[in-house]
UniProtKB/TrEMBL annotation:
InterPro entries: Amidohydro_3 (IPR013108), Metal-dep_hydrolase_composite (IPR011059), Metal_Hydrolase (IPR032466), Metallo-hydrolase_Enzymes (IPR052349). The keyword Transport does not apply. Residues 90-315 form the Amidohydrolase domain. Keywords: Hydrolase. This is Amidohydrolase. The lineage of its organism: Bacteria, Bacillati, Bacillota, Bacilli, Bacillales. GO terms for molecular function: hydrolase activity, acting on carbon-nitrogen (but not peptide) bonds, in cyclic amidines. It comes from the Bacteria.
């Protein structure tokens, strides 16, 4: 693969970019050479989705009605019911989500896979098949996730089996609200994660001080088990519900233990104080959680740039620095392409990366290792001979 892209906005200036053997080989001022004309499109990094489910999607073609629920447990039950009725084509639906993510410039994702005694490891097997199918295009981490409660559904032995079968992260959900035993739940999670030298990623919806207390216990276990840098708390609504001072104190401790916080930027509940956490040194990342229609919501979507735009809009990040900062929550900075980097990027129509954060324009071309693989104008992209047949096959 040997291709010049001309007139590309990259790192704040207009350049001609040489792609060679899957990497950015050279960058020179625009007008220096001839090649495929990008017409001043902006080069953006590809995104990492830090929290997504591939095994919960409803079909796009059929409306499946949800009913009102009054508790999380009713919701769990409704989801199991509805999913059981549409078990067919789960893999096709998951594949459609992956394709949608790729079209939106996401190339890396952390997938939470449901595991419980009724479905066993069947969802894991399905996701692993897709992981193999998309190898070389999408990077997928798999969390063994006991959606019905680790203790509540007696899922611990299955989570161990999932780790043996190739999941790489131990999941959990509301040690208090769902499992009703914070200590035993966390001990089980950290024991398994230690036995398999794995990371931990816990869904925490528990509100207010119950959630905050759970975070304090997660911090204690992280320290006790020496899991610094390997623990994530997903959602953590409670950090947006307790006082700013309490949140700040917790943020400092989270930073010390290098515990990450992941949010889907909810608009229907409190959310962690992102700026405060970031300033305290906590790693914060965005995840889609819901990707479209599912049992939880009809409002899911996979476009992380839209989610980042929502983050900036909700927090009135109107200044350039904070608009630019949204890209750090998607796994990268916007203007840090260097010679020698893998040629992974998307091209969009925007004045600059601040503008892109503000309008979340469509991804015109999504490119992985120099090969255009997705995007609204992929058919107009340069043609790359190396790897092309392989990738064409995969996406037909
Ligand atoms: Zn989730």
């Amino acid at each position: 693969m040997d291709q010049w892209l001309c007139n590309v906005q990259v790192n704040g200036t207009l350049q001609d970019v040489h792609l060679l053997n899957g990497v950015i080989h050279r960058m020179v001022p625009a007008g220096s050479v001839s090649g495929w004309d990008a017409r001043e499109m902006l080069m953006l990094p590809l995104f990492k989705d830090a929290h997504v489910h591939l095994d919960k999607a409803f079909p796009d073609q059929t409306w499946i009605s949800r009913r009102r629920v009054t508790s999380l447990f009713e919701q769990f039950q409704m989801e199991k019911h509805l999913l059981a009725e549409i078990r067919t084509s789960q893999k096709e639906r998951a594949r459609a989500i992956l394709q949608d993510m790729l079209e939106n410039g996401t190339s890396s994702l952390r997938v939470h896979v449901d595991i419980d005694p009724e479905i066993g490891l069947s969802h894991l097997a399905m996701v692993q098949e897709l992981q193999a199918e998309y190898q070389g295009i999408l990077t997928m981490e798999i969390v063994a996730f006991p959606q019905q409660g680790l203790l509540r559904s007696h899922a611990a032995p299955l989570i161990e089996q999932a780790m043996q079968a190739g999941a790489s992260i131990v999941g959990g959900v509301d040690p208090a609200g769902v499992d009703l035993d914070i200590e035993r739940c966390l001990k089980t999670i950290f024991d398994i994660s230690t036995a398999y030298d794995a990371e931990v990623d816990i869904h925490l919806h528990d509100p207010g001080h119950l959630g905050l207390f759970t975070i304090k216990r997660i911090m204690a276990y992280t320290e006790q088990y020496g899991k610094q840098g390997q623990v994530t708390v997903s959602h953590a609504y409670c950090l947006g519900e307790v006082s700013a001072q309490e949140s700040l104190e917790t943020a400092k401790q989270l930073a010390e233990l290098d515990i990450a916080i992941v949010t889907s930027v909810p608009i229907d509940s409190a959310m962690p104080r992102i700026e405060q956490l970031t300033e305290a040194g906590v790693r914060v990342a965005l995840g889609s959680d819901h990707t479209g229609l599912d049992a939880w919501t009809p409002f899911g979507f996979t476009d992380l740039l839209q989610r980042a735009r929502r983050l900036a809009d909700m927090h009135r990040w109107h200044d350039d620095a904070r608009l630019r900062s949204v890209f750090t929550y998607l796994g990268s900075t916007a203007s840090s392409f260097r010679v020698g980097d893998s040629a992974d990027f998307s091209l969009v129509r925007a004045l600059n990366c601040e503008h892109a954060a503000a309008i979340a324009p469509p991804r015109e071309i999504v490119c992985i290792r120099g090969v255009p693989v997705a995007g609204r104008q992929r058919h107009l992209a340069w043609h790359s001979e190396q790897n092309k047949p392989n990738i064409e096959e995969r996406f037909q």
